[in-house]
User: What shape does this take?
Amino acid sequence: MPRWSEKVCWTTTTPAGKAMFQMMGVFAEFERAMIRERVNAGIARAKADGKHCGRPFIDTKLEGRIRDALATPGRPGLHKIAKQFGVGTGTVQRIAAHAVG
Assistant: This one.
């Protein structure tokens, strides 16, 4: 049984090879656009159904306790407050920025 795949050689130096590589690029771009379209449609459908997309919100009571800790005179640093409440430093920074602004 002959193995024709050994005889086929795609190279970009020939017009046929260039055309083949361009067609593969076109199909890859088309496939990626189709994936993006399906993902965006799914996200839009989830938002229309009232679902929250992204990280879950922290509890409002916890946020209030963090805000109180930030308002305390002579308070510890942001890293210590974050460690104390078991949240990330970015969360404490976001709450501090909203408290000031």
Helices lie at 15-48, 60-71, 78-85, 89-100. The chain has two domains: 4-48, 60-100.
